[in-house]
Recover the amino acids of this structure.
């Protein structure tokens, strides 16, 4: 257990033992005008959420947090933040632990085809401007993913030892903040594609409305996945859960 003073020394970080979800708390803080790069982190979540409103298992030992961002960008460019977060986190995992972290569209991170990270975002507008973008991240660190979650692993399982969660959190936050302030967002998609395992593979993409199967051929400049169907047509998918 991390000493309480560790979190108190970092005023932008709000640390909790147990919450409904860090996204809920971050949303409330964002609406109360909390500063850019405020972070909500919890040891456990009771009602963590993944894509398509799925439950996200959030037991103690994992790293569950949400970052409040206030980017000065047009709303249509907000998708780049998701790609930036997953790209920087994969780079951080490779740098710290020497693991071959790969990206799966839209923003999961896998090692040896097993998921260790899920990322979810939400945005609120103020008139025609972005008020905030919240990036919720769940990392299987020292927890054991439940058996009913297929193809999931954890850093502890991969490395054969416990991992200092705080070291990982702060390494990522430092790298992500630097990326957001200094990197060219125009390049994020092309850089992201260098580290993905999604392209040139048969995929099934599930949304609330439909399922699409085909060959993933590209991720375009808007962050959409292009899938070639059996009849040769190409379908553009802007969101969904992707299965390889």
């Amino acid at each position: 257990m991390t000493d309480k003073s560790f979190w108190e020394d970092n005023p932008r970080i709000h640390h909790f033992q147990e919450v409904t979800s860090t996204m809920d708390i971050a949303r409330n803080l964002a609406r109360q005008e909390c500063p850019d790069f405020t972070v909500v982190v919890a040891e456990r979540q009771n009602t963590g959420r993944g894509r398509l409103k799925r439950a996200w298992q959030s037991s103690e030992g994992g790293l569950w947090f949400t970052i409040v961002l206030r980017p000065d960008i047009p709303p249509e460019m907000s998708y780049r933040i998701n790609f930036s977060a997953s790209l920087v986190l994969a780079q951080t995992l490779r740098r710290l632990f020497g693991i071959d972290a790969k990206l799966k569209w839209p923003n999961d991170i896998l090692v040896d085809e097993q998921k260790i990270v899920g990322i979810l975002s939400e945005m609120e507008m103020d008139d025609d401007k972005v008020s905030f973008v919240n990036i919720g991240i769940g990392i299987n660190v020292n927890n054991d993913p439940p058996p009913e979650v297929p193809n999931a692993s954890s850093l502890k399982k991969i490395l054969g030892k416990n991992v200092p969660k705080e070291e990982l959190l702060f390494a990522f936050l430092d790298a992500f903040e630097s990326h957001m302030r200094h990197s060219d967002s125009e390049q994020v998609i092309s850089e992201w594609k260098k580290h993905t395992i999604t392209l040139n593979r048969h995929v099934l993409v599930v949304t609330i409305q439909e399922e699409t199967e085909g060959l993933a051929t590209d991720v375009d400049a808007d962050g959409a996945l292009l899938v070639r169907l059996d009849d040769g047509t190409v379908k553009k998918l802007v969101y969904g859960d992707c299965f390889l």
In short: Residues 70 and 132 are 5 Å apart (CA to CA). Helices lie at 4-8, 22-31, 79-97, 155-159, 165-182, 188-193.
